[in-house]
Design a protein that fits this description.
Layout: E1 3-7, E2 13-18, H1 21-24, H2 30-44, H3 103-119, E3 123-126, H4 136-145, E4 153-157, H5 162-168, E5 174-178, H6 184-188, E6 192-196, H7 197-207
Parallel strand pairs: 1-3, 3-6, 4-5, 4-6
Antiparallel strand pairs: 1-2
Helix pairs in contact: 2-3, 4-5
């Protein structure tokens, strides 16, 4: 069974935690990972790129110069795509880049990503912190004691850990994510995955079925 190192609130190694077989020992499905990451990045695009076609330019309609006798190629409009400042041919238009991806594929990709990190030993579990106010300094000290300074970290919090969320979100190289929003892209783009005990339980409840 896959296991993860368990740390206390100070970042000191305490013990190990057994991980769910269904989530952390699944076969890595490369195609599901590719499709999920591609879909996630497509959803981040605004799709507002736009260039003007020749009919949208506010230029005068007068012919630039006479048709014959100048020795130059004939030209009838400043809007021509052949001229500098003219319209763009087949340029980008506002569009929706989002793609439909079914729920089973997304969950398969997440299981694949979690299993990959578990095989590499890059999943860590920390005790549920008791914070009455945001404490970024304490959060930074915890990660430093865990030996994660200089690495990109995906820190997963339980839904109710709002103080922990605020404590970690400003740390450089740390991407903090609520458990219910965890996805394959967040896992893959980070070197390691750190989860609180409450977050681990929540992830198994939401994505383990």
């Amino acid at each position: 069974m896959a296991t993860a190192k368990r740390f206390n609130e100070s970042g000191e190694s305490a013990s190990t935690v057994e991980l769910s077989e269904g989530l952390f020992e699944a076969e890595v499905h490369q195609q599901a990972l590719y499709e999920t990451v591609k879909s996630y990045l497509a959803h981040q695009r605004q799709g507002t790129a736009k260039t003007k076609e020749r009919g949208e330019l506010a230029y005068a309609n007068a012919k630039l110069f006479r048709q014959k006798g100048t020795g130059r190629a004939r030209a009838g409009s400043l809007r021509s795509p052949l001229r500098a400042g003219g319209g763009t041919t087949f340029g980008p238009k506002p569009r929706d880049h989002r793609t439909n991806l079914n729920r089973k594929t997304r969950q398969l990709a997440l299981r694949s990503a979690l299993s990959d990190r578990a095989k590499l030993g890059e999943i860590y579990v920390v005790e549920n912190p008791n914070l009455d106010a945001p404490k970024t300094k304490a959060a930074a000290a915890m990660l430093r004691n865990m030996g994660l300074v200089g690495r990109t970290v995906c820190f997963v919090t339980a839904d109710e850990d709002k103080m922990l969320f605020k404590s970690i979100r400003n740390l450089k190289g740390v991407d903090v994510v609520p458990a219910y929003q965890l996805n394959a892209y967040k896992v893959l783009r980070s070197d390691c995955l750190v989860m609180t005990e409450g977050a681990l339980q929540r992830v198994e409840e939401v994505f383990g079925s």
